[in-house]
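Most newcomers find our protein records easier to grasp once they have seen one. A learned vocabulary of local backbone shapes supplies the integers on the structure line. An example says more than a description, so a record of this kind follows:
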Amino acid sequence: MNRGRIIRISALILCAAFCVLSAACGGANAAETRPAGPEWDTLRTVSETSVRYATEFSITQLSDGYEMIEIPATGKLLLVPEGKGKPLNLPDDVAVLYRPVDRIYLAATSAMDFFRALDGVSAVRLSGAKADGWTIDEAREAMERGEMLFAGKYSAPDFELILSERCDLAIESTMIYHSPAISEKLEDYGIPVLIERSSYEQDPLGRMEWIKVYGAILGKEETAEALFDAEVSEIETIGDMEKSGKTVAFFYVTGAGAVNVRKSEDYVVKMIETAGGTYAFSGLDSGSALSTVNMTMESFYTGAKDADVLIYNSTIDGEIYTLSELIDKSPLFREFKAVKTGDVWCTGKNLFQEPMGIGKLIGDFYRVLSGEGTDELVYLHKLN
């Protein structure tokens, strides 16, 4: 075989390998033959999903079955119906996601609760958390069965695994802002990236309303609407009940001995108020974009010593179960009214991963404040 022929064969092999890699990089559906889509300018708005409380997203139904999810802070995602193609002359700022969507890399753990509610956990093939990092049973069990694979945390994803699994969508938390090169690399491989921003919603119902985004992705819009409306109905019922007016402090003690509390406009404060309580730190604002603020133990004592109810936030610091554990964090707690009356509670660690539980948490707040049905609590337990 002459040298020229060898070179030509080698070039053909390299070209074939590049094509295979390119197909893998294009997500789960990239290798499939798709018809040419319609001209982008010919698609018209058919309807828009009703969004009652959220401000961080919108969903628009277009002609020919196309659908647009827009997250103003991060970008636009066009859902292409199964069997149809990408519209011609689509603007460069619109990412494309082909239906069905069933090989997701989920690095934003708080979104898993939406998939569980929609009976869509099976659509998540790749996880940014290991099995022991999940408090959601369905996710942990899926990993233990090998139906969901650990593909690395958001800042160090296993690109080889993600590509070999033909991932069709990466869902990231806003932590990806600290590793922008990761997001860019995923997009370079043809994998659209959706940045989960439900935690930026100021209204607690707005956070829960993000189930409509995942309903659109999974093609389960009607189910998402029904689930959301049912939760809102329960919360509105609680809001109509007689308010206790009891003062509440929601907090945790940092490792350095400071006390972390929610600012007055935070969504947790709104949940307490919906349940009929009054936040102990009204008018509190640090001037930063953060939803919390640290204060000295002495300042916290001044503002919360006469609060009727103390609720310890275990999300960061971990759960506690006794008043002694609380007092070990600072002897000053002995002087708090709620400690003396035994009206001190703690959240469960599963709170962060379950945004669809907001209605149940408001119900827990109401039971604690009213003193009725405290044996039915879901997310709170009493310190003894």
In short: The longest strand covers residues 247-253. Residues 3-25 form the longest helix (23 residues). The chain has two domains: 25-231, 243-382.
